[in-house]
Amino acid sequence: MNPGKQDIPDVSATHGRRVLLAEDEVTVAELFETVLRQAGYKVDMHADGAAAAHALDGGGYDVVLSDINLPGLDGLTLLEMVRRRDLDLPVILVTGAPDMTTAIKAVERGATGYITKPVLPQKLLEEVRRALSLRRIAGIRRQALGMKGDAAHQIGDRAGIEVHFETTLQSLYMVFQPIVNWGDRRVIGHEAFVRSTSPMLPDPSSLLDAAERLDRFGDLGRAVRVLCARALAGEGPPGLLFVNLHIRDLMDEALYDRQGPLAPFAERVVLEITERSRLDTVPEIKGRLQQLRDMGFRIALDDLGAGYAGLTSFAVVEPDIVKIDRDLVRNLDREMTRNKLVGSLVQVCADMGLQVVAEGVERPGERDALSELGCPCMQGYLFAHPEPDFSVPVLEGP
Ligand code: G
Ligand code: MN
């Protein structure tokens, strides 16, 4: 018989890999150990959570397999300890009494797998193999990012990223891109984007990624709001300031503080919420947005046409302003389908009494097509790149 390729396990990927096993039930522990050893793994067994945590200090493990209910220190705490130091070491949690809350906690805290007893040997081996694959993917991803010169992602240990993140927080600055009304050749405001001088987290996406991995979104959002407020208090932009919010920012209570840095400027601030993220994951989002409106902020729905689509984002956000994503705007003067699509969008928004801004305008052809469709407000490299000061481009043209 000639077995299919997928039936042959990739032994090289698993052989000699080190598993830290934390399990206090002797029969289960012995079964796991036997199964894993027979499959070629090296197993370090501990019946006590604190002892397992201590063993972690020695390092060199490829997978952690831990019972949730352990004497000494429970599996969830062990998981937290692992995550505090290593973002790539897979942790599989095992439980005899499955319940939703712990399963959710396990996943939130970064468990790679969650299995319930009794665990069949086959299932155990599958989970461990899967965890090892995830570890390899994490390593490859890091290498790939390294090729792009993104140093932050080459670091697997949390402490390293944390240091870079702290330094980066100190080195943040804002750039501002004008938003124009081409109809009356006027600048109506600017959109603020965060940048950093830190070579460790050079672009906004790696900064966001680090914030996400460290669960430090709050700090990043607050830093951005302080910088924007500083800009508004200084020379100030000639009109509105559009400030991007991540949906995580919506969960930061500091955003709703009436003494917060942006609060004194609320009437001039438009908070942008992107349609790219799952807005329905924010609890009580409607009430939260209402609170912001009550403080005087206006709300824009960002990246329209690029997101999860459907009508939910509209219904949930009830935006004052809508920003059309640059992917829709690109070449709308050359492609009829795009042109029609943007035209309908502009029409519907007008019917609803919403102001529309088109993003990513790079050529005069796109600008003129938007004007013809009744969308005079736009933004893009054609007018100006984002700059550290509030640039006001000369708006001349037919
Ligand atoms: O997806 P989002 O709207 O957040 O993208 C914002 C980024 O788009 C900013 O970093 C800004 O520099 C960039 N950007 C601004 N105007 C243009 C443009 O006309 N073309 C392109 N390709 N990017 C732009
Ligand atoms: Mn935006």
Describe this protein with a few key phrases.
binds guanosine-5'-monophosphate; single chain; 19% strand; binds manganese (II) ion; alpha/beta; 398 residues; 13 strands; 5-stranded parallel beta sheet; 8-stranded mixed beta sheet
Describe this structure in words.
The protein starts with 10 loop residues before the first helix and ends in a 20-residue tail after the last strand. It is elongated. It has helices at 11-14, 26-38, 49-56, 75-85, 100-108, 121-147, 158-170, 204-214, 217-233, 285-294, 312-317, 326-329, 336-351, 364-372; strands at 18-22, 42-46, 63-67, 91-95, 113-116, 172-181, 186-196, 240-245, 269-274, 298-304, 321-324, 355-358, 377-378. Strands 12-11-10-9-8-7-6-13 form an eight-stranded mixed β-sheet, sandwiched between helices. A five-stranded parallel β-sheet has the order 2-1-3-4-5, sandwiched between helices. Residues 1-9 have low confidence and may be disordered. It is of the alpha/beta class and 398 residues long. Guanosine-5'-monophosphate (G) binds at residues 177, 193, 303, 326, 359-362, 380-381, 386.
